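Why do we care about 3D structure at all? Because function follows from shape, and shape follows, mostly, from sequence. That is the central idea of this module. The next example makes it concrete: a single protein chain, its amino acid sequence, and then its structure expressed as tokens.
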Amino acid sequence: MTEYEQRQAKKMRDKIIKFAEDTKVRDNWHEPDEQEVEAFITGMHLDNAMGVQFSAAGELTVHVTKRKSLSVDFNLADLLADYTRLARQDSGISKLIVEHVLNQITK
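And the structure:
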């Protein structure tokens, strides 16, 4: 991941953390509708992960709101890209743990 991508991913994560803190949504996002949190998607195509300052020119955008007063918006491709990076990092860590455990068992 480039430094630019790292900065953009951090900005996106900071936005969702701030939204979660401001709205007091549960960390596991279980039953957000019971906490008056809603989401909707606008746009017409899934095109580019463009960072936090994305162009709204038809890109699929996820809008998360609470009581229509607090909101946060994300380019859907950015969310997918960030989740993919996190999943790959987690897979790498999981792989190291599994290898360590297997090494311990086979000693």
